[in-house]
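Notes for week 9. Today we move from apo structures to complexes. The key idea is that a small molecule is not decoration. When we ask for a structure prediction with L3IBWBLD present, the ligand SMILES becomes part of the input, just like the chain. The input block below holds both the sequence and the ligand string. Read it once before you look at the output, and try to guess where the molecule might sit.
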Amino acid sequence: MICGSVPVKAASTVVKGGQLLFRQLFEHKSCTYTYLLADPGSNEAVIIDPVIEMVERDSRLVEQLKLNLKYALNTHVHADHVTGTGLLKKTFPQCRSVLSELSGGKADIYVKHGDKVSVGGLNLEVRATPGHTNGCLTYVLHQYMMAFTGDALLVRGCGRTDFQQGNPRTLYNSVHQQIFSLPNEYLLYPAHDYTGQTVTSVEKERTHNKRLTKTVEQFEQIMANLGLPYPAQIDRALPLNLVCGLQELLSVKDQTEQQSKT
Ligand SMILES: N[C@@H](CCC(=O)N[C@@H](CSS)C(=O)NCC(=O)O)C(=O)O
């Protein structure tokens, strides 16, 4: 169930029915983390940032765990891999895709800052964290003191701001106002890691993040000088991710353009 602005208070209540079912899954080519979360009482589940090449693995896991996959959330329109959302929906027809209303992408459900995504007894608070892209979202699971930060905040790093409406000042404010404002002990799960790390915390990033502990002016300088090459899959990924990762949803014109690039 998706609800409008509902104030969510910080609490560490364990959901009735037992422990959270939680899996952190990895895709090696784009170093992407996908997260599977399920309410132990109802077996209703949500997947965050699935990757198309790993849909078979993820579908098998959902089936083996006997989960009812209700939602496929993307934290934003990704530039480095094709989303698995569209393909997952074919296997799990009840599954609904979710994106920010500011993303520019196609989805079954559009969410905005302050909304809530609920599966069984789990409630994910939607926080807008733009700056890497306009439509970047962080999903906060207060019940288990966890947040899924997409590319807004990476372990000791953050998403780049040099394409897709990137803006360093906006990103700095998003992280400070929407992520660093969470309690210190909240665990933060990023959409990527390039150094073999899996998780961090509000406290660790507030203390050790080499970019975001600086002033906003210093941060802007750092971001202007990252010197990163464009993601290898950007030309393929961006148009496909605007249509849930499915070629068949692209217009004929877009498909012709896509083919001429390959
Ligand atoms: N080499 C990777 C792309 C690496 C990259 O640019 N990652 C992005 C997130 S995906 S758009 C990023 O924001 N990185 C920040 C950083 O500091 O690394 C590929 O070719 O896919």
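The pocket of L3IBWBLD is lined by residues 30, 79-80, 151, 157, 159-160, 192, 194, 228, 231-232 (CB under 6 Å).
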